[in-house]
Amino acid sequence: MQACHTSDLHTHSRASDGTLTPAELVQRAHQQGVQTLALTDHDTLAGLAEARQQAQSLGVHLLTGVEMSCVWQGIGIHIVALLPNQQDLGKLNAHLIPQEAARQQRAQQIAERLARTLAPKPEREALTAQIWQQAQEYAQGTSLGRPHFAQVLCDLGYVTNQRQAFKKYLGSGKVGDVKTNWPSLAEATQGLRAAGTITVLAHPMRYRLTQRKRSHLLQAFQAAGGQGLEIVSGRQEASQTQQLVKEARALGLKMSWGSDFHKPTPWQDVGRFSPLPASITAEESILHWLH
Ligand code: AMP
Ligand code: MN
Ligand code: MN
Ligand code: MN
């Protein structure tokens, strides 16, 4: 079950691995009845100026956001950061500069590692260059990520679809899952706080942790200054939502939510995600701290 919501605090555009331009994303949000939208591209603010222009003309309330990659105990973790005060934009941008450089460096390593698995030694260098080149072309100067490599693996015939590309080569623990360039959870969170954002641990159920390990993660996040938890991310079981609400309340973390929209499909859209519990109070909602 998915409901249509008037606020969506986690979405992507073509500035990272989404398919819509920032303007198209805002337009689609508006059509879907979303009144408050956060654009949270991976490690970049590049789509925000265009999104803001469209949001102003349509009367959508746009929140400046970003989804930052980091690592905690060897696991890739994502933090959604939302900026209440536009005057801090420069500081946030500065915090993200090393992140964009890390993505470029990582891209080179991913290409090398994929080529090492896919080709015999004499052909590796050429394949590395080809994979890297094609991934850059897909990313078109935007935040280069694993979905771009997934597309390249499809094009070169190593897999038949994106899902298979992640399952075999790019997903957690696979050869193309390179995390060495990311900052630690503590560094990322502290820096985001210093840049004036409100920080939310993204899609906590996506990491496939035991409840005990997730509890350790939440404590580490909070100890570093983390303030919020995504209690709903896209489609999820009602029991998971209830569990996350409980965990947020236990630590006093603010509650956030979003579609994690990347592209329109019959099962995902801007503003579409599982129901939010009616029991959430205004003060528990992250929106209360953003206006
Ligand atoms: P990156 O930002 O380069 O680390 O790539 C992570 C992105 O890959 C996520 O934000 C998703 O958009 C996408 N992704 C992760 N896992 C999968 C998967 N199993 N299938 C398809 N896309 C995925
Ligand atoms: Mn993504
Ligand atoms: Mn994510
Ligand atoms: Mn996301």
Question: How would you describe this structure to a colleague?
Answer:
This is Polymerase/histidinol phosphatase N-terminal domain-containing protein. With 291 residues, the chain is an alpha/beta fold. It folds into two domains: 3-96 and 188-290, Metal-dependent hydrolases (TIM Barrel); 98-170, no CATH class. Helices cover 43% and strands 16% of the residues. The protein has helices spanning 22-31, 48-58, 89-118, 121-139, 146-155, 162-170, 185-194, 211-223, 238-251, and strands spanning 3-4, 7-8, 36-39, 61-72, 75-83, 198-201, 228-233, 254-258, 272-273. It has a seven-stranded mixed β-sheet. Strand 3, helix 2 and strand 4 (61-72) form a beta-alpha-beta unit. The protein is globular, with a radius of gyration of 19 Å. The chain binds adenosine monophosphate (AMP) and manganese (II) ion (MN) (3 copies). One manganese (II) ion binds at residues 12, 17, 42, 262.
In short:
With 291 residues, this protein is an alpha/beta fold. It contains 9 helices and 9 strands. The protein has 2 domains: 3-96 and 188-290, Alpha-Beta Barrel (TIM Barrel), CATH 3.20.20.140; 98-170, no CATH class.
Q: What would CATH call the class of the largest domain?
A: Alpha Beta
What name goes with the CATH superfamily of the largest domain? Metal-dependent hydrolases
Bound molecules: adenosine monophosphate, manganese (II) ion
Instruction: Name the structural class.
Output: alpha/beta
Uncertain runs with pLDDT below 50, 5 residues or more? none
Instruction: Provide the number of structural domains.
Output: 2
Largest sheet: 7 strands, mixed
Provide the gyration radius in Å.
19 Å
Percent helix, as a range, is 40-55%
Number of strands: 9
CATH topology of the largest domain: TIM Barrel
Named CATH architecture of the largest domain: Alpha-Beta Barrel
Give me the side-by-side strand order of the main sheet: 2-3-4-5-6-7-8
> What percent strand?
15-25%
